[in-house]
Each structure stands twice: as structure tokens, then as C-alpha cells.
Design a protein that fits this description.
Number of helices: 3
Structural class: alpha+beta
CATH architecture of one domain: Roll
Shape: elongated
Helix content: 10-25%
Order of helices and strands: HEEHEH
CATH class of one domain: Alpha Beta
Low-confidence stretches: none
Largest sheet: 3 strands, antiparallel
Length: 100
Amino acid sequence: MSAAAATAGEWPLWEVFVRSRRGLSHAHVGSLHAPDAEMALRNARDLYTRRQEGVSIWVVPAAAITASSPDEKDAFFDPAADKVYRHPTFYAVPDGVEHL
């Protein structure tokens, strides 16, 4: 992005992920606009961890995220359905086996 675009108010969108004090993974908490990664990180800290609930923040340019489409969910996830060996019904469980 050019400096002219950044000063014109066309800052890129950043997705913000925060890991809470009690959590083991980062969770998406929101989005913000910022001219660069450093400013996005600082703004994310100010917006999403005001009560000191976070221990780590990730900011990711929204343009860098590739996602599957909800409209194509059946076709996209269909290949997993033909792998019967991934389902516990494929295996014979011996009598007397508990907690499998």
C-alpha cells in the first residue's frame, strides 16, 4: 500500500486474535483498521485488552486470510465422508473393552 493511500484513510483491515490468561489458544475478538502491523498491534491492545485479560495478541491482515465459503460447505467437506476408516464404526471392538 502506498503512503498516499494510507494518509487518505484507506488503511487495511486487520483481524485481531487474543489469548486470554486462562486460555491456551488465541481467539478472534474483532477487526480494526491501521496503517501497519505495529500500529495494528498497539490499537488492538488498547481496544481488546483494556482490562488486562490478554497475554498475547496476534494481528493478521484480513487480505492474507483465505477461507472456505459457507455456500460450498457440502462440496468442500465431502471428501472426508468417504474415509470410513476414520470413523470408530470401521473397527471391531472386542468384548470387555471399556472407555475406547
